[in-house]
Amino acid sequence: MIALNRHYADLKDSYLFAHIAQKVSAYQRANPNKSILRLGIGDVTLPLCDAVIAALHEAVNEQAAKESFKGYQPECGAPFLRQAIANHYRAHGIELKDDEVFVSSGASDELGDILDLFDRSSSALVIEPAYPAYVDANVIAGRRIVHLPSGRENGFLPEPSEEVQADLIYLCSPNNPTGAVFGKDQLQRWVDFANEHGSVILFDAAYEAFIEDDNLPRSIMGLDGARSCAIEICSLSKTAGFTGTRAGYTVIPKELVRGGMRLNDMWVRNRTTKTNGVSYVLQKGAAAVFTPEGQRQIQENLRYYKENARILMQALDEVGVWYCGGKNAPYLWLECPGGMDSWQFFDYLLSEIQVVGTPGAGFGSCGEGHFRFSTFGSRENTLEAAERLRTLLA
Ligand code: MLT
């Protein structure tokens, strides 16, 4: 009989966000007249900006005419998009070669796929609370996971330590779920640590566009020595509303070499084997994000979500609930009131005021007692959720 990947048995029954969706659907079926406000999964609600929509339409029209029709796209990304992304980095003072940028269909896919580069005997360090896919993707691969808990005492930004070592180091900044952002010096210490130990940092920059403070690094690639130890994975999901459209990119510098093998070359080999690239239409839409008009328009949408954050923060301030995040990140991370654990608080909010959030325990055991709200809801729902929270928790 065929042997299956037995590590699936080590996973929880369902993925965090799928589990929440099931619970919410069951509640809605039992209570069809209740209006549920979803501040759980970080799913955007504003439409794609005009520049992206125009580019997508144009690309569809090109695909409709024999003269302009395009077949397969290069597996690692269309040159026009790789160049647009590299130029965007250059505009922020970070030199990248176009072929150090790989176009992807989003960060989640890439965070799982990139593990193909590393032997299964390698270990992975995950700072918790963390986006649950980091852990689950490594569980599936049967990799040893080193959990590094963080908390309020270190602002959810732990320092590297000789006692906690691993081959792969996940860093997410701005952090999902806590909203904590590494300062330049702190991030530099992780880069130095990775170079000293031969580790590779997988830097998840999915929320970089939410950073308001110019002193905070939006990319790891600007730090000294990052080019020899880091891979940056980014997404247009939250930056430009692509959660349902799907596009992202990964930066693998040419200097990143381990055991005599260059990871950039390996990823080219991987992509040319395992994908046929991202669709031409989507890449045209993605390229529009990096035009001056696209950049201006996505800022309008980001401002809208930031106003949602302000509305929720004000409500939490008024009812005296401790929280962090919300300023340089689109998530609020709060303490569950009344000593409730995070799934109790989830059930309490759902049953009493029909507001959905994400229980902190879903981001690792040290997230217990905490809860996450997404600020990606509609204005109307966010205002209504803030009002219901005020009434319930006053
Ligand atoms: C989240 O809610 O943490 C994210 O939206 C999930 C994701 O990006 O896959």
Write up this protein.
38% of the residues lie in helices and 15% in strands. It has helices at 16-30, 50-64, 79-91, 107-113, 132-140, 184-197, 263-274, 280-289, 292-319, 342-353, 379-393; strands at residues 37-38, 101-104, 123-128, 144-149, 168-172, 200-204, 230-235, 248-251, 257-258, 261-262, 323-325, 331-335, 355-356, 358-359, 370-374. The protein starts with 15 loop residues before the first helix and ends with a helix. The strands form 4 sheets. A 7-stranded mixed sheet has the order 2-8-7-6-5-3-4, with helices on both faces. A 4-stranded antiparallel sheet has the order 11-12-15-14. The chain has a two-stranded parallel ribbon with strand order 1-13. The protein is α/β, with parallel strands linked by helices and 394 residues long. α5 links the parallel β3 and β4. The model has no long low-confidence stretch (mean pLDDT 97). The protein has 2 domains: 14-43 and 294-393, Alpha-Beta Complex (Aspartate Aminotransferase, domain 1); 50-290, Type I PLP-dependent aspartate aminotransferase-like (Major domain) (Aspartate Aminotransferase, domain 2). The structure holds D-malate (MLT). Residues 41-42, 108, 131, 176, 237 line the site of D-malate (MLT).
